Amino acid sequence: MVIWHQKGRLLTGQASTFAAASALVTEAVAVRGACSMAVKERFNTVICESDSQALIDSVTRGPEWMLRKIESIVKDIWQNVSKILMVKFEKVGRRTNMVAHTVATKAREGTLPVLWLTDPPPQLRILIDREARVGVGPDLSYG
User: Fold this and answer.
1) Where do the coiled-coil regions begin and end (predicted)?
2) CA 119/CA 44 separation, integer angstroms
3) Using CA atoms, how far apart are residues 32 and 58, in angstroms rounded to an integer?
4) Is the dihedral of CA 135, 140, 141, 143 positive or negative?
5) What is the predicted pLDDT for the residue at 14?
6) Between the CA of residue 121 and those of 10, 34, 126, 141, what are the distances in Å?
């Protein structure tokens, strides 16, 4: 999970490993974590980005679109976002989401610290500089 400020500055990131049934489940867990962190940090506006159209559809289109294997995770996401003033879910391509993709890959390989706050790991710094976002949203962007 990677969290950006609206001005394109990296706020924080987290890498975790766990057994998941699919990449979709993993992506859903990351979005749930980002939404939970947004509630905890009292962000008013959140933009959640994912390269999974299936996840975006499950979260935004209602129960009839929800995939069974992520149903409980999506319900947790809905519960979290109900506490946030404005939430937007966007489908982005992997090229736009390279820092988050690299975090997931390096976490799987066990080559990335679990949590970093103000000092990202060296293997991410170049990507972060390249992918720094400008004007993505008022408070938070998850990638």
Assistant:
1) none
2) 25
3) 13
4) positive
5) 67
6) 12, 19, 10, 19
The segments of the chain whose pLDDT lies below 70 read: 1-2, 4-19, 114-118, 131-143
Number of folded domains in the chain?
A: 1
**pLDDT at residue 55, rounded to an integer:** 93
Q: At 83, which CATH number? A: 3.30.420
pLDDT of residue 92: 82
- 112: domain range? 2-142
Cα 22 to chain centroid distance, Å, stands at 16
| CA distance linking residue 82 with residue 51, whole number of Å | 23
CB 77 within 8 A of CB 28: yes
Q: What pLDDT sits at residue 60?
A: 92
Residue 59, C-beta contacts closer than 8 angstroms, at least 6 positions apart: 31, 48, 74, 77, 78, 89
The string of DSSP codes covering 57-113 is HHHHS-GGG--GGGHHHHHHHHHHHTTSSEEEEEE--GGGGHHHHHHHHHHHHT-S-
Distance from C-alpha of 143 to C-alpha of 126, rounded to nearest angstrom: 16
